[in-house]
Amino acid sequence: MIDTQVIVIGLHLLGVIIGMGGAFTSDAIFFSSIRDEKVSHTEVRFLKLGGKMVWLGLFIIVVSGLFIFSSNPEFYLHSSKFLSKMTIVAVLILNGLIFHLVHIPRFHRHAESHFPSSEEFMRFAPWLLVGGVISTISWFSALILGLWRGVPYGYGEIMSLYGLVLLMVLVLTLIFRKKFIPGFK
Questions:
Q1: Average pLDDT, stretch 94-108?
Q2: To bridge 155 with a disulfide, which of 31, 80, 86, 138 should be the other Cys (CB 3.0-4.6 Å)?
């Protein structure tokens, strides 16, 4: 007999692998491609492909998560770990929407151009870094929470730690932004 709970958890992990892999691959493509101070049409296409992987992963996570939740709703509604993960997944979804609705169109407009020469691109570049930090910290946080059995902290403590780590990494990233994006002033 096949244990459906094992299948659902396996799908959930597959969603994490696909989504997190797509996010980290997109980040690597972005940082690799800006070394020459321009993003080609091909690189934009690969960024969009990575984004599709993230959306596929998030879709699998949400659907399988609903099945996991439905197995014991009373337990999960009172689980600080579950509620924290759901909040972090919501942050990932919102961050992904902003990336695809705001940043990808700008990449298209600036494809093949020398982006440090573009005032518009340089004005929004810090927001790219912010989105990348939010994505990275959120994926790692959700992964850690998913793997951590018996989390001894409440929702407020978990989310405060998440917020603190996010803020610290954001500040450090913006301080050292010239290391990440050439042409930053």
A1: 88
A2: 80
